[in-house]
Amino acid sequence: MEDVAGPITGPLAEALARGRDTYNARVAAARPSTAIDGEALLAALRAMDPIVRAAHARDPAVVDTVVSALFDGVLELVPRGVLGPGARLPEVETAWRAVLGASSRMLCADPRRVVAATVNALTRLAEYRGTRLGDWVTTMAALSERAADVDVWLQAGVVAAWRSGLAHARTGALDTCARLPAALAAVAVGLDPTTSEETMARVVERLRGDPWAWPPHVASGEEPPLGIKLVCHIGGFRGFGAGGQFIAPPRVGLREGVFIVTDGERLFELHADFFGATLVAAEPASPGFEPPASRGALALGEGGEVRHGDIGRYFPGLASVTSWASTDLTLAATRPVSHHITLFARSGYGL
Known about the structure:
This protein is of the alpha+beta class. Among the domains are: about 10-125, no CATH class; about 225-345, no CATH class. It is built from 14 helices and eleven strands. Residues about 1-5 have low confidence and may be disordered.
């Protein structure tokens, strides 16, 4: 391998030079089991420069430990296509560098754990369409300066991931939110850090019962007029490399309060709330399986009318559906010629 310190300058180059023999030995030890592109490794290391400079500005004494953790991360992730010029998901690398650079307080406190945990979180977020990696990075940077330690910061990161679109993390995120200090929980859900414990408890309780509530409105006590909103279309055709989930138009049902969707071959759980919607693979569908058509107070009527009590709204595209299911607050419907599920909500918030 080319001398890793050669094309790199500043604190990163100095740390690599101090540990040159150790780092080259790590590369040599990895070669028998891993195809390592030396140029890609150097490029990925070079991209770590702003992170190391931020850590050096925070605490020069831990720079060698930070560089060691980053080096091992790069050595593992470049051959896997997570980092470097050939990265499969370049947005993950961009977000990873951003969150580590902006969260130097946490990185300096526990380099190896933070390096591993942040890339794992971002990779998980990137698995689902519609999640917002940039939102997670911004929130984690804000949390970094307020968290008492790395444990608490990473716990708050679960809440931040849910708020960034990881809808199936909702229950766990709200449980975590209830245990966090009020100021940290507030930042994680997008509220002012001065939000009181009483207000945060009220926000969490409301969010548990209403997936379409928006924390700032709940915290302020505002109650906008209720309406029926078309939330999103989720899914897509998975043939011909299209990147969707369904080989045939899906059908939707409800089981134990969770939407389930199948195309006859695969089965998914569908989770949705104000912050996003995700399809999570479940056990394979048995032949002839039909999702239970469980229906709540939000209902689909004649001519494509979605109704909740005395509130109704017509959606002409729903005049013909193959299946639909609902809770009191959310309705999911499928159509004969579409590989998507359409979601509706009873909400007063701006979706």
